[in-house]
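One example given next:
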Amino acid sequence: MINIRLCSCLLVAISVASFQSSPRPRGCAAFKSPSRLFMTENSRISRGVVYGKPETADNVALHTVRGGQYFLPAEQLEQRHLQHEWSSVSHAYGFSEYSLGVLAYAELFKSNHDVTEHRNELYSFSDRKGRRLALRGDVTPQFMAMLRSHREGSSDCVLKASLSPPQLSKWFTVADCWRYERPGHCRRRNHLQWTCDIVGIPGEAAEVELLTMLVTFFRKYDLSSDDVAIHLNHRQSTAALMNLLGKPADDSQWMYEFMKVMDKYRKISKEEFTDSLSVLGFTPAESERLSDIISGCTTIADLEKVFSPNAAFVDNLRNIVAGLKYAKSHDWVTIDLSIVRGNDYYTGVVFECFDRHNHMRRAIAGGGRYDNYFGPSGTTDRQLSYAVGFGMGNVAIVELLRDRLVAYASPGLTFCRGIKEQGAYADVVVFTPASDGDRPGLPYMQSLYTMIDRLRQRGLKVYQYYKTPKWQKALEFAEKAGAGSFVHPHVDATTGKLTYQVHDIRSKKKVTVPGEDADKVVEFACTPTDADT
């Protein structure tokens, strides 16, 4: 009789071997710590879950949940760099930053605007007082509620004091968002989202500025219009398209179901798209015609051939493309009738950014106009009546940058001032062992710490190394950490005085400096040495 336990062990071993020999799917839960910014696809691994077994406390990393993101130090460097660029572009365009908590009342995210799928994806629960709370799934409902509360005289004095004047039109934030959805390619259950909104402006100038912001951001990473395309559409084009095909555009429920199918146009195969349309009453010929119209309308001229050139939405799109032409960004844009956006609150122009070289990749960013968010009679406040914005998550864009490895194509890119090399953990490593030996005695410790403080005042990252009493180990650490200089303080055996030996990591040169001359140590640590001394 075959031993069942033995067979089970063999099956597990075969599964593990197969998993290890095959490439990981793109939708892995987390990434291996990279040796350089935006690492390659093949260096990724999944962490946190033992595959092939049910998730229990025994085989799941308890510091995270399935689909949640976490980052080791090298990964966090690239995340901080990304957030720095988000903030830099926002401030360059005059946007003001705000912040809201990730926890809010669940009712806020269950308005009539939100589609059923998004409601079902909420991380919601009851607190000890029975209040229904939820983790933020979308920034827009929370942002608009904040604006309305402030405009209508909220009693929350702290919140009011932190807000900008009512005249403020341009807002941005980097917010943590959570959705209980199946993790996959470019999809996690939580992501950081860069969100920019312009409120109170009814004209196309707001859309032009937001799209130009996206182009500016992409260019910072040496991406061009050959790499990324901004797919542009208008919500009204969908109804016009249905009228053209003789479909019930005035049936709101039918249109809702149709737009759900259209939103998946780039995410499913042509056969799946046709099957989904057949459920809504499309014949194979009608499905084929719809696909032909979508693929044949990529410019304003194409739109004018299919729809009336005088149609309001055609004129709206025409003005935006013209504005982008003035901004020298029109080559990034293509008209795409399949772009509808998943949320019901969009009312006008909608757009999504895609990788031109990977058409099955999820959108890098997306947004659109959402006028009258609170309804036609919800408010008479101009600032709350007109709004347009976009969001960009930290998952798809990092996937794209890792594939392109563009961070190292631009030597000028740095995380922040004072970092001499991409990915450096420290600029200067100072050897300060905790044990005895040639460690400077107590009379010299004040001089040593004064020197360290001066290095930090120069804007340098200084790492005190006291893991072992061996200075050679400290020097090895400095080389691996990407430091530019290594400082070895020790007591001179002849004079009995404090002496600094400053190593230039790159040139392998070193200089000896008297302990009382801390300024020279700082000078040599900040600039390369010219010769051995």
